[in-house]
Amino acid sequence: MRLNCGFGFVGNVGAAESKGAELEFTMAMTDNFTLIASGGYTDATFTETSQEVGVTAGDRIGNVAKFNGALSGQYQWTVNDSFDAYVFASIVHTSNKLDPQSQGIPTLPGYTTYDLRFGVQKDSWEVVFWGKNLSDERGLLTYTINMPTGLDYVNVIRSREFGVTFRYFGSN
Description:
Helix content is 0%, strand content 54%. It is mostly beta strands.
């Protein structure tokens, strides 16, 4: 919790409850294509009221997304007798969540990211070309206005990244 003067305050609310479910499945659609889906739902609320902390029974617990999910697919094939290749793509979504430290934006909006990898394998080595957060989503993790200075402090997910990874698995 943030006080009006800009300083933080941590207090004990007393009791909370978190219920939810997660589901994940992997399905081989063909010999070369695999589909992976996962999702989770969390209902996390305070079960007691604390006037000192500013919480009422039934309020959502901060920094807990109600829903998150991912859908991924991988296609793999043999290039020739000695090379194998694959393409892996994923979409990951996180729903909105409360930021108990926030002033100005108490509910942080949900966000979706897209990742892509292309890899080539031969014997005991692999080369992977990858991109993460391809749409350059700026999902908010925290948002705070510093009252004395009036400056905003924003923490976002990692920006778009590209890279190459070389791996050696040891001799066969």
